Every structure is written in C-alpha cells, then in structure tokens.
Amino acid sequence: MASSQTQKGIVTYSLSANRQRPFAGATSAAIFNTYRRSRAQFLYVVPPLILGYMLIDWANEKNHYYNSKEGRMHDTEAAEEATGGGTVRA
User: Fold this and answer.
1) What is the pLDDT of residues 2-57, one digit of tens each?
2) How many whole angstroms separate alpha carbon 47 and alpha carbon 53?
3) For residues 13 and 10, what is the distance between their CA atoms, to the nearest angstrom?
4) What is the pLDDT of residue 48?
C-alpha cells in the first residue's frame, strides 16, 4: 500500500454559504414580509385609531360649543330650569 505524504505550505480557506452573502435578497423579502404582516394586523390597529380620532373630534367640538356664546347661554338656561329661577348653593 502506498501512502501519500501530507503536503506542507499549502493553506486553503473557505467560507460557508451563509457567510458569503448574509443580506442577499433581504430588501425585497423585507418589503413583502412587512406588507403581509401589516395586512394581517390592519383590523386590530385601524378601527381603534378611527374610533379614537372620532372621540377626540367630538370632544373638541363639544368643548368649543361650551366655550362659545351659544353654549354658555344654553348652560345658563339649563341651570335656571334646574333651580327654578333660584340660586344654586354648594
């Protein structure tokens, strides 16, 4: 049997497949993955945001009305009806 001698002075380097291009296709995959995940969460996020916006809008309109001349007149009339024309004591 003939055995071969080990060679000296020859060095071989190699990279594994996942080290050669770690971000290959990452941008296109990220775009589609983000779209897919956002679409899946749409009904959990958008309706509460719309409801919150409508609530804040209603509260702002009510606040503007109560701080307007018509709102104060309405509040004064309601207080007179509740007290029967008398004064309110604390």
Assistant:
1) 677 777 888 888 877 777 777 778 888 889 999 999 999 999 999 999 999 999 99
2) 10
3) 10
4) 97
Give the pair of three-digit tokens for residue 5: 């001698």
Q: What is the dihedral of CA 71, 75, 77, 78, to 10 degrees?
A: 130
**In the structure encoding, which two tokens stand for residue 27, read together?**
């941008």
CB-count exposure of residue 70 (10 Å: 0-12, 13-18, 19+):
exposed
Q: Which residue has the tokens 């971000």?
A: 23
* Type of residue at 19: R
Tell me which range, 17-26, 33-42, 64-73, 77-86, is most confidently predicted by mean pLDDT: 33-42
Question: What is the rounded end-to-end Cα distance, in angstroms, of the chain?
Answer: 114
- DSSP H helical ranges for the chain: 17-20, 26-66, 69-83
Q: Are 72 and 66 in contact (CB under 8 A)?
A: yes
Q: Is the pTM of this model over 0.70?
A: no
